[in-house]
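User: I'm putting together notes for a lab meeting next week and I want to include a structural view of one of the chains we've been expressing. I don't have a solved structure, so I'd like a prediction I can at least talk through. The sequence is below, exactly as it appears in our construct file.
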Amino acid sequence: MKQPAKKKPTRREWTPADLRVLKRHSKDRTPVSKISKEMKRTVGSLRQKALGLGIGLGHQR
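Assistant: Thanks for the context. Below is the predicted structure for the 61-residue chain, given as structure tokens.
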């Protein structure tokens, strides 16, 4: 039996609206897992973007 092909992840650009949402969540100290579900992005991608912007992410900082 052949394994089903894995779906290749597609990269999505960060829109100015996405960045506003991320910064708002940073200020509100929303847990990263919750942000991930809302924005449909991985925890890793959110953390990388936050690091690049110089903002903290998650409730433990």
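A couple of points you could mention at the meeting. Residues 16-53 form one domain. The helical segments are 16-28, 32-39, 43-53.

User: Perfect, that's what I needed.
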